[in-house]
Design goal:
Elements (H helix, E strand, L loop, with lengths): L8 E2 L4 E2 H11 L4 H8 L9 H10 L13
Antiparallel strand pairs: 1-2
The structure holds FE2/S2 (inorganic) cluster.
């Protein structure tokens, strides 16, 4: 856990990106929409969606806050 990378979960579903990534890898998911359909993450407030996208692209599970202008 790093203070420089404080974003590590979907708050609405209480699922960590680490857990979500395992599911994505198990199922071969490549799209945020697939994760939203199965787990609900990204489907409520939507704030985690850019992080979920980055997680799928990079395999990282902890992120620095992405400025709103870049979401
Ligand atoms: S934080 Fe993931 S949908 Fe709200």
């Amino acid at each position: 856990m790093s203070d420089d990378h404080p974003v590590r979960a979907c708050m609405c579903t209480s699922l960590t990106f680490r857990t979500i990534l395992h599911v994505a890898q198990d199922r071969g998911y490549t799209k945020v929409e697939q994760l939203t359909a199965l787990l609900g993450c990204g489907g409520s407030c939507g704030l985690c969606r850019p992080y979920l996208q980055k997680m799928l692209e990079t395999g990282e599970t902890e992120f620095a806050v992405i400025p709103r202008a870049h979401r």
